[in-house]
Each structure stands twice: as structure tokens, then as C-alpha cells.
Amino acid sequence: MSASGGADPSGRPVLEELNHEQCLALISPGGVGRVAFDDGEGPTVIPVNYAVDGDAVVFRTSLEGRLHQSLATVLTGAAVRIAFEVDSIDPVRHEGWSVLLRGGGQELPDHERPASPAVEPWPGGERPVYVRLVPHHVSGRRLGHG
Q1: How would you class 123 by CB atoms within 10 Å of its CB: exposed for 0-12, middle for 13-18, buried for 19 or more?
Q2: Less CB within 10 Å around the terminal CB: N or C of the chain?
């Protein structure tokens, strides 16, 4: 189904806009996503392991990481503008989906960490900084054959 309500008669994949609930359902299993932010030198995108916590996304980073450095420069309680993207692509079938969340990223205080979902980073090394993105905008698209 396309956004206009019908399948493409040519048999080519159709792009469909996803609503808020569909987007959250697609990313709810957690996994790997990409965080985009300005690290002071320009736009930067890094992959992270994440978990979903209600409408928010939680992930971890190192104390030395660029994202933590950006978080450390804002006032206590303030948020850093970030975008978070997760996708699943099947290049053989020309199908897939992409979800984008935009909002404020904040370091999760120690007392809130036990209540947040578990996030296990893949790389070795310490990643003690928990970040929560509370989105003010959620959007997504799915490409499929109706």
C-alpha cells in the first residue's frame, strides 16, 4: 500500500509513511542504531547499541567519546539536540524501513539507571555514560511491495 492508498501497478516497491506507533513498534526490540549530533567540528554520526524505554531511547557511551563531550558542555539538566536512526534494509527484495527520532539527549543520572532497560555495548572498554533521547519528533518510512 502506498501513502495514496494503492499498490504501484508497475510492481516497483512503494514508499509508505509510518505513524508514531508503527515507528516505535519497529525499533522496540532494540539493537543497533545511529546517533547524529554536532560535536563542535560539524555533524557526526556514530553507531550505538540501544534499548527502548517507553517513547525514549537509551544507549551508552564512553567518558572520552565525542557525544559525552558534547553532553558535558551543556548546563545541568539541559539537553543536546540529537537525531537517532534505525533501519532494516533488504537490498535483494528492495524492501525495508527507516525510523528517525529527533529530540534532546541527556545523560541519565545514576539514580535512574536501575529503572532503565539494559543496554550492552558490543565494543570492549568502559561505557559508563547512559544517554536518554526523549524525542519530540518521530517519523518513519517503509518501502515494500504492497
Answers
A1: exposed
A2: C
